[in-house]
Write a structure and sequence with these properties.
Layout (H helix, E strand, L loop, with lengths): L1 H27 L3 H26 L5 H10 L3 H8 L6 E2 L2 E2 L7
Antiparallel strand pairs: 1-2
Length: 102
Amino acid sequence: MCKTNVYRNVSILLFGWASCASVALAQGTTSQEIQVTNTGISGLWVLANISYAGMRAQNNSSKLWRILAFIFGLPATIVTFFAVKEGNDRAYGVDLPRKGRS
């Protein structure tokens, strides 16, 4: 009975050591590639929010692009949904240009 406890304790110790070592190794390999990927995802998020705000303010009729911008910009597009009036030509205090407007 005592040997099984020793084997169990040693196996738990080895598993814990391997887990900590793999986490430490993974954190040490945060390279420029990962940072570039995170920057690209953040850039897409910001562009989706700006696009959704503009489409909502200008009352754009393209439902597909509006839905895609809403999904890629979540959760900030929920704020935009309530903060920007539909067809107001103004988003977050910025007057948006429109063709044919004098």
